[in-house]
Amino acid sequence: MWSGIIIDFTMKIIVEKNIPFIKGLLEPYGAVSYLSPEEIDAAAMSDADALVTRTRTRCDASLLDGSKCRFIATATIGTDHIDLDYCRRHGITVANAPGCNAPAVAQYVISSIAYMMSVRGDRRPLDELTLGIVGVGHVGSIVREWAEGLGMNVLLCDPPRAEAEGGDGFVGLDAIAGLADVVTFHTPMTRGGEHPTYHLADKAFFERLKRCPMLINSARGPVVDNGALVEALRDGKVGCAAIDCWEGEPSISRELLDLAVVATPHIAGYSRQGKIRATAMAVEAFCRHFGLPVVGPTESVPADIPHSPTLNMITGSYMPDVDTEALKQSPDRFEPLRNEYAYRNEPGA
Question: What is the pTM of this model?
């Protein structure tokens, strides 16, 4: 099966040690070092050929200058921790894992809505609520499908998609602010370009809100101005909040932590199935880049994502109360709570 393939067993591969389901997969191809994010520094990378990481490692000139690294895989959807321009200029191929944890984040969003409503004593059925989804990529599309299956009215805000596909079916951020009972963010974190998302939800956005909505951030921390959100919660412009992604992680705002009904340590996408997908995608990208036989985790995941899970299926598979209590009790343990998280199952898994 491997006839004609030459494997360089002198290759050095750095892997962040908190990536699950990966140990043993890359050892046939070189010397693998499993390091904590703090240990992945310029010295460790100086003679490394490849890096497999997560969001805690900033991949830029300070890490990579002088390194012989030519491949980086991140076992995450986002790439805002990677200086993509630097990598392009220095011939470093970058691979991510788009959509790997989309069902888990959708699970988190729907369960958080149900939990916040129960805490507030809000007895409205879901089909009386309007959900505003900001960012309709892999995650936002599944949130839309599941929410519509539950009878919710859904508004979609995604300017890049609207420009590429035409405006039909999309609304602007002002419409979200004016009409939504729940606003959930699923954008990448960008500071430049035509549609930057840094502080997309800022003081001006909160001033435009009309329906005192629930707000959910399971995208990236700086997409929501955390200080402005604290003010909006105190002023009653936002009814309640579910925050999984925080500015300044792991040193998070204690004021926002106290005010948030749902407060979790960046684990919205932490399903067992999502982690298997992410590792499989990162390892496959590594193998294809170096022309090696493709290997993957021994555990597999269902090929099909449930298309219309019931509310009981979703909330029965996950509710955010335990994770919220753990973070509120021990905010200084943000990273251990994240790194030692017991991966949950997705609905129907």
Answer: 0.91
